[in-house]
Amino acid sequence: MRSDTSNLANKVQLPNIRLNLSRLRITSGTSEKSRATGMTSKDRITLYQDQGVQLLLGRFVKGEIVELVPSFDLSQTARYPEVEEVVDGDTTAAKQLVEKLWDVGIFKRKFHEKILVCPSCLSANVSNDYVCPNCNSIDIERKTLLEHTACGTIDSVDNFLIEGGLYCPKCNKELIEAGVDYQKLGAWFQCSQCGKRSDLPSPIHRCRSCGHIFTIKDTGFVNVYSYRISADAEEEFKRTFLVMKPIGATLEDFQYKVEMPGQIAGRSGALHRFDAIATKGSLELVVLDVVASEREIEETPIASLYAKVFDVSPTQTILVAIPRLSEKAKKLAALYRISVIEANDSQQAAELLKEHFGWTGLSGNEESIDDLQL
Length: 374
Fold this sequence. Notes:
Blueprint (H helix, E strand, L loop, with lengths): L40 H8 L2 H12 L8 E3 L3 E3 L1 H4 L6 H13 L3 E11 L8 E6 L8 E9 L5 E3 L4 E2 L2 E3 L6 E2 L6 E10 L5 E2 L3 E6 L5 E2 L5 E10 L1 H23 L3 E3 L2 E4 L5 E4 L1 E5 L3 E9 L7 H13 L3 E7 L4 H9 L3 E4 L3 H15 L14
Parallel strand pairs: 19-20, 20-21
Antiparallel strand pairs: 1-2, 3-14, 4-12, 5-6, 5-10, 7-8, 8-9, 10-11, 12-13, 15-18, 16-17, 18-19
Helix pairs in contact: 2-5, 5-8
């Protein structure tokens, strides 16, 4: 028996319990998938601007965190310690942030554990107790049944025990070797209140927080998940924050209003997306794309960028190539009047962008892309 049930009344009255579904959140869903909501890339971009999110996702990108595995907590059900570090230790805010990152598709999740909770207060601080199936008393004891091999006496082990040894209560012979002198036949549970024996007691649950007593039929369950960053979100974050942040800061230093990423409608009415759109009033429009590769970048990104800017007609078009363009790509960029910045990383690209604006000035190209003959 559990020693912590001594404060309960001997007879536990089992009430008729109705599960409070309005308060109990039972979450289901396909594991390894993000929640299918109306959240858009813009919602994710907004979250990327949060400093706590940047710190958390940065640890994923660096490999310091591979998976957020929940730790069990009696008061909070589950906790995510790595997330708590970026929200000043607030356990509730940490769980809300994890849920939000899953909502927008930044996180994917996997079922980790199902936790039993009180249906009244949703606390996970629940004890499992056993009661007599006849009178509902918790004052029950487990008895082991022994058989004396020689004379066939069957009785509780309590009746065999004398001064630390085993003696047959019928013939008084000492029983020394299990399996030879005696054998265990099994066990039963005996109620000290009504004296009834049973093979199995009835299980009940007791909430240590609010004192509520309930059975398995009324038990609440909460699914707990582990989380990983999705591959798409990781690439998007690296591109939007790790790569684009220093570039965006440089554009802002030159008094541009920057949107990263940004969309702009062309003359055709089609929306075109760029890694950065920088504007200054209604006269200046700078569009910028970043292309990164482990090898020389060929002409395809140049042609794709030109297809967009031909419809948009910006005052400046910039392509940041990490690490560099091929000679053919450079010639094509020059033909399309696309300014090219080659750099080893985004920080170097930001420095070269400053030099670019230093000699280009803030007024953009002298000729619009409209002047280019196809």
